Automatic annotation (TrEMBL):
The keyword Protein biosynthesis does not apply. Keywords: Signal. It comes from the Bacteria. InterPro entries: FG-GAP, Integrin_alpha_N. It holds the Pfam family FG-GAP_3. This is VCBS repeat-containing protein. Residues 1-29 form the signal peptide. SUPFAM superfamilies: Integrin alpha N-terminal domain.
Amino acid sequence: MIRRLRAILVVVAAVLVTTPLLPALPAAAESELVCPGTANIPVGWIHSDSFSIYNVCGVTGPVPHTVITQWEITRHTDRYRDDTLQMCIDSGVVIPVGWTEIATSVVWYRCGLQTPAPGAAPNVRIIKCLNCPVRPPDPPTPTTTIGGLDGVANTGVVAGWAQDPGRPGTSLTVHYYIDGPAGVGVFAGAFVADQRRTDIQPGNHGMRFTLPAEWFDARMHTLYAYGIDATNDPPVLLSGSPKLFILPKRPIGSFEGIDTAGNANGWTLDPSLLGYANPNAVDFYIDGFFVARVPANGPRPDITTSLGYPGDHGFRWPIPPDYRDGSAHTLVARGTDLTGDEGRELPGSPRTFTLQRRAAAVDLDGDHRSDVTVWRPGDGVWWSLPAAGPTAVAWGMAGDKPVAGDYNGDGTTDRAVYRAGLWCILITGTNENRFVSFGLPDDKPVPGDYDGDGKTDLAVFRPSDTTWYVLPSGGGSYYGFAYGLATDRPVPGDYDGDGKTDVAVYRPLVGAWIVHQSSDNTDSYLQFGVSSDKVVPADYDGDGRTDRAVFRPSNGTWHIMQSIDGRYRSEAYGMNGDVVSPADYDGDGRVDLGVFRPANGTWYLRQSRDGDYSVGFGLGTDLPVVYPS
């Protein structure tokens, strides 16, 4: 009888495993192991079979047969007939307390069913103990760690990989020792090898560990890397170990060069723990003299990615105007150390440069400072306040639009007006009069240096056909460039820093700046501002590129997107009713915030170098002159 019973149980077990007998278990029960012994079987029931099911105990797919996940418990009633090897259930029997039914099904070769009979009444009932001890998983099979120490970069980044074949999806810990193996060398740290390596699969097994700062000492050392096994095998020395390395003294970085706009560019960071995500600084020396200390906090995602150091570590420093005198100078960049040690001259230093000073807007006396200037529409007189004292020059008439610029390229601003298609220009210094017909009465004048020759070109934006028309000062005929919509506000400027004015518009409906960059003939799009803002593009950070900026009359706040580092800043200066007048009034190469208040005829200037300044100059009906106008 027992032999025959075992035979039928094998059949039952096979059917239960290979047919869709069991519904999905409740989430709370999927990770439980049902009692593996017979001591917990309720009175009046018998154990008829043991088997494994799918997706339990953290295993995706069939559970190994060595792990018993369920008991088949069948009610032992008078229907049990040993002579025919039939074992039936009584579905009306109450399930004991502490147990629950998890499935019923029809199993052929029971209760008179000699062949499969779909739709027959259930003759198998499976119940589960709710409070049984959990059987621990089988111990892992020991395997040996494999991996390699690929190398040590001069930035202190250690590259390589480690994997336990017995647990291929598990990321391992790697221990590092310097100048000797484990137990002899200096423990340098531990790192989980969890970086993605497409050549090592499955899982993530790459390592990018940065050595501690004390090993940046310009001396030769050896590095040992050990993979810590996931199956409790002894640590394994990774292939390629030991590895020789020499790290430069900290800080690390590079002085990459000086661009055409006169900006010193590069990156630096202190690899000590203090420098982790914290910027250090750069000390600049020109001709042997200290000039400035600048934080290295500009975005450099390439450095963050390649070195594994979070934070921003780039620098971009505009060389001061005093050194833009046409003479040769020598610039040295030294990275500072956050631990208090002496700084280090960055690779790439020293560099020799020769720069010309950039002209300031509305600079009527050639001193590289913008002069407070108004144009009086009633009598066409230009009133200005240069260093030598107030001046008045009659040029223009009622209805004209002031369009000051450097039309002959001598570095001094010339007075000019646009009169319904006629440009009237008075050259400063020589008093030469120029009259050029270019444009139509409804055109908007947009003068600028579109060809990069240092002279202001005549240009207009025609809303009727959304075309920019430019007459280059360097020669040649005019050209047209369709760009923008009729409702756009023209905002020309040198947004890419190539020395040429770029065609650009501000779209009030969506607060968008749309710029056609002359350096590469590509378009940029940035939403910055609202429809009621006044656009005030200018070079506020001194890097030689026009910054997108707006003045919000409702709260008297300036909002500026700095091109030097991509950061946004806002500053409250002015009030509703003021006329915005930004320009470089202190001559430091950076445009200052400025407003003219018609209510009291006063200019309020927030100079980036010389601080706040105010002066009464002009009448309430005067038009402040700024460039671009």
